[in-house]
Amino acid sequence: QVQLVESGGGLVQAGGSLRLSCAASGRTFSAYNMAWFLQAPGKERESVARISWNGASQYYKATVKGRFTISRDNHKNTMYLQMNSLNAEETAVYYCTAPSYNYWGQGTQVTVSS
Description:
seven-stranded mixed β-sheet, globular, mainly beta, 11 strands
């Protein structure tokens, strides 16, 4: 069992940056492939970025490629999402997850003002 806690959300102007963190409890974090999802108002939850258990492989949703960077520090049991050049359409609740095990955090709100 892993508990996930996101932080780092907030209000930012369009074109600005935020760095989200996902702190994981438990000793097996390093064994999990991880991901960030977002859920915009009135829309379904969707994948934003994924990272392999050792950080060697990453996947990005096409619209964020080149602006978002997913990373992890297995020594700190923490995953990150650096988000640059944010736009208003990316206003959403952002969730971290270990998708293969259906572990989810509670989410952190990101609001981008235009």
